[in-house]
Amino acid sequence: VYKRQGQTSxxxxxxxxxxxxxxxxxxxxxxxxxxxxxxxxxxENLELSKEELEKAVEECDPEFIAALKRAAANIxxxxxxxxxQSRIDPMPNxxxxxxxxxxxxxVGVYVPGGTAGYPSSVLMxxxxxxxxxxxxxxxxxxxxxxxxxxxxxxxxxxxxxxxxVFLMGGAQAVAALALGTESVPKVDKIVGPGNIFxxxxxxxxxxxxxxxxxAGPSEILIVADETANPRYLAADLMSxxxxxxxxxxxxxxxxxxxxxxxxxxxxxxxxxLSRKDIIQESIDRFGGVSACxxxx
Length: 296
Known about the structure:
alpha/beta; two-stranded antiparallel sheet; 14% strand; 10 strands; 296 residues
């Protein structure tokens, strides 16, 4: 049985610690050097202008922009109902109790964008912060393989109403947000998913800055009976497996027929996907895909 490693490797811990310390002392220049080293691209300016965000929207499909706006409205409506209220409660003996609920001064949102773009991460992190009345929302996202930002992510940032956007990724971006640099403002909290280097940086900087959580590789476990549709099962498994080669996608079913049909469907659908190589790497880590019986 394959078991996940319970801790980050010492090599990654050491590498991230070095990145954090060099960003602490070197600021913007060091962040740019790491961008060149890890992304193959050195930005002239770390911060993107409003004009660049608006240009990104022009590159996107109008139907996609409309879908972003609908999703943003739904997310905002949902979180508005979660919002806590301040209150003052005078007691009979003259003592006044209560609570004051207010948003943080500044929050940093990390949005993955190196190997794949996730505009949903923008909406689902930025909009709740706005509902909570955070003073300023700063977003950072890494450049794509061409050295340019993902236009879909930038469009989502504009739709969501992000205050400032920086083009940087990895542990160096987390360090810049937590510590502050010449151009990157120091934030009170960092939220958003990322790879193992981003997660490790958040872990090491917790206490210097607040974080949402330390997220591990994507996981999905589906329990299905004989009435399930193998087409949907395969799609759900791949929806998580495509995130990262470290992802884990598992199906449990009492039906050997459903299991085998899902395996067949998995390979059929995977053949047409742009991220099939990532999914295949995730599969290979577990020794391939097969329908297993009589597991205890």
